[in-house]
Write a structure and sequence with these properties.
With about 650 residues, this protein is mainly α. About 70% of the residues lie in helices and about 0% in strands. A 3-stranded antiparallel sheet has the order 1-3-2, with no helix packed on it. The radius of gyration is 29 Å and the shape is globular.
Length: about 650
């Protein structure tokens, strides 16, 4: 065989999967040592012990303390309910609630919020209707629960029946923000105009909504109408101008501010950095009268995001005080640079680490090392967050490591992340990448709370595996459920059309994303349309299509058309297209080979030889391919032999 399998890890990695299995079957300590030796065990001590257990993920320990308590008060019971809710164990919270001898408003509100948080909104509403003496917190929490679960109509109905004297500024702000989150600007402004008292916080809610949606003109007009602007109003408007790239206007407004706080300075610095104006950001940073750690971290993060790690390191050394964010920022810089050696060295020297530290370091790896770090993270009693899990699951997907993926799925359930949309979406993609479509569908159907990412993941699963009709049906269901498609959604739909030869449907979706949803196509959308047209013989139409799209999106599209020309034997057009790609990418070794092959197929041997000579003269080489395979929990890699140009012998 030409390609030889090579082990990528040592004895430590060969036992990695077994170690992770042991982690999954090991029970955490149920009695934290901080409390077992304490002789003074009053009710406050017991309540603190329970809260500490939940905070450290020791749920069984919390229940053990609760069962051992000689006497309990309503605070104890509420600590248990709140802890179970925060640990995504709503069923346990319900059992505790049912066993309570007496309840107060906190008990009811905590359980109701828990049901809403995990997507069980009907049960939350049933509980809300049973609350004996509902206060404004209960009403606001239920309205917010509806909004967070995509049920804006139900939220508005409840808001309308809420007693008017009970509505406070937070009630109006929650409802207005809910409309703005769905880009329903007219309803948001109409509701604002109905408010009796327009407090500064209510005005800022509407203004910040305009800012988040990038509605500069609306924000400017409304800002001018606010009579009593506070510093939050000014800061929001500076952010709005910064996001729109209007830094001169943002700076003018900053200079006009009657009063500035550290957030004002930081927002202005952040605006410069986001617009790649590092020098002006640094000048303003040096002028800042009272720099807190957030300002230092913002400036340092700006250096890192603009690939100026050395400047970030210099600033790090100058900081009067540092926090975990400071250390994580430099770690991110090393990872971003691809310097995993120094990233690991920096990580090892950190005085303290957070989940973000582990998450950042793990993100620097795209092989089995990421899984090894994940195991080490769990062994050291760090609780992986949804970001960490999403990364390691995506690594399993890229390596097509189904065994690891299943073990991580089990961990997700045990750790209580089965209601997290990001994690579950990663599992959908992992099973899809491994070819297990049915498992992807089971994960998707089990999700109580979905977001656009999870819908996209399942649509992409159907699209990639040739189930176009299922992808279209799911897309329609997504729209009916009030979710807005994004560019990723339409890329999957175009891919589905390309796989099944549905040219008319593909053109329809391409037009719809622009006309109906106001989405700007990316280069990959154009390439997908070209693939759809070219794959099924519409070569000339594809050529004309590329000629009409933005120049910056043409290179990938030309390359896609080149594949179609080769498939359909259109060597004349293929030669034209290959030259266009080579002009845009003179260092692309594969394209020299393609053009040389086209010349050879047409009998133009001198042109073929001249192309290969040009490739050698420019020092361009065709990259060697590689692949990975999982065998009994271990990952193996292989290199593929280089393709030889025509006319060369082995």
């Amino acid at each position: 065989m030409n390609h030889v399998l090579t082990r990528i890890r040592s004895q430590h990695q060969r036992s990695l999967l077994f170690s992770f299995k042991r982690l999954l079957t090991t029970n955490p300590s149920t009695q934290p040592s901080d409390f077992t030796s304490n002789p003074r065990r009053d009710i406050f001590w017991w309540n603190s012990a329970i809260t500490s257990c939940f905070r450290n993920g020791q749920i069984e320990g919390a229940f053990n303390y609760f069962d051992q308590m000689p006497c309990k008060n309503v605070v104890t019971w509420n600590c248990m309910i709140t802890g179970c809710i925060q640990s995504d164990r709503v069923s346990d919270a319900q059992r505790v609630f049912d066993a309570m001898p007496t309840r107060n408003i906190v008990s009811w509100a905590a359980l109701m919020t828990g049901y809403a948080k995990c997507g069980r909104i009907e049960e939350a509403r049933s509980l809300f209707d049973r609350i004996p003496d509902r206060n404004v917190v209960c009403w606001n929490s239920m309205i917010s629960g509806y909004i967070n679960n995509g049920k804006i109509r139900e939220a508005r109905e409840l808001f309308d029946v809420m007693p008017l004297p009970m509505k406070n500024s937070a009630s109006w702000s929650i409802m207005i923000s809910g409309y703005l989150r769905l880009r329903r600007v007219v309803e948001a402004r109409s509701l604002f105009d109905q408010a009796r008292l327009r407090s500064a916080s209510l005005c800022n809610a509407l203004l910040s909504g305009y800012v988040e949606l990038g509605l500069l003109k609306d924000a400017e007009e409304f800002f001018s109408q606010i009579d009593a602007k506070d510093v939050i109003s000014w800061n929001s408007m500076i952010t709005c101008y910064s996001r729109a790239g209007k830094m001169k206007r943002a700076r003018d407004l900053f200079d006009e501010m009657p009063e500035k706080d550290t957030i004002s300075w930081t927002a202005m610095i952040h605006g410069y950095l986001k617009n790649r104006n590092v020098d002006d950001a640094h000048i303003l940073f040096n002028k800042m009268p009272n720099r807190d750690v957030v300002a230092w971290n913002t400036m340092m993060g700006g250096f890192v995001s603009n690939h100026l790690l050395d400047d970030a390191l210099r600033l790090f050394k100058e900081m009067p005080e540092r926090d975990i964010v400071s250390w994580n920022t430099i770690l991110q810089g090393y990872v971003q640079r691809g310097d995993v050696v120094n990233a690991l060295r920096w990580f090892d020297n950190m005085p303290q680490r957070s989940e973000t530290s582990w998450n950042t370091l793990i993100s620097g790896y795209r092989n089995e090392e990421a899984l090894a770090l994940f195991c080490k993270m769990v062994r050291q009693k760090f609780k992986p967050d949804q970001g960490t899990l999403a990364i390691v699951i995506s690594v399993c997907a890229s390596l097509v490591a189904l065994g690891w993926g299943k073990m991580l799925h089990l961990y997700v359930i045990r750790a209580g992340f089965e209601h997290d949309a990001l994690v579950m979406s990663s599992l959908i993609s992992m099973y899809s990448r491994c070819g297990f479509i049915h498992d992807s569908a089971l994960v998707f159907e089990s999700m109580v709370k979905r977001d656009t990412v999870s819908w996209n993941a399942m649509i992409a699963t159907y699209a990639c595996h040739g189930f176009a009709l299922e992808a279209f049906k799911l897309f329609n269901t997504m729209i009916q459920n009030g979710f807005h498609p994004d560019q990723v959604t339409f890329l999957s739909l175009l891919l589905a059309c390309s796989h099944k030869g549905l040219v008319d449907e593909g053109c329809h979706y391409f037009r719809s994303m622009q006309k109906d949803w106001k989405l700007v196509p990316k280069p990959e959308h154009y390439s997908c349309v070209v693939d759809l047209l070219g794959r099924y013989g519409f070569i000339n139409q594809a050529y004309q299509f590329i000629s009409e799209i933005p120049v910056e999106s043409q290179t990938n599209a030309w390359e896609t058309l080149l594949s179609a020309c080769k498939s359909h034997g259109n060597l004349e057009l293929g030669e034209v297209v290959a030259k266009k790609v080579l002009h845009a990418r003179p260092s692309d070794g594969a394209m020299y080979t393609v053009l040389s092959n086209i010349y050879a197929a047409k009998g133009k041997w001198e042109d073929a030889a001249r192309t290969r000579a040009l490739m050698r003269a420019r020092g361009v080489k065709k990259e060697t391919g590689s692949s990975w395979i999982e065998v009994q929990g271990k990952m193996y890699g292989s290199k593929h032999p280089k393709e030889k140009p025509p006319g060369e012998s082995g």
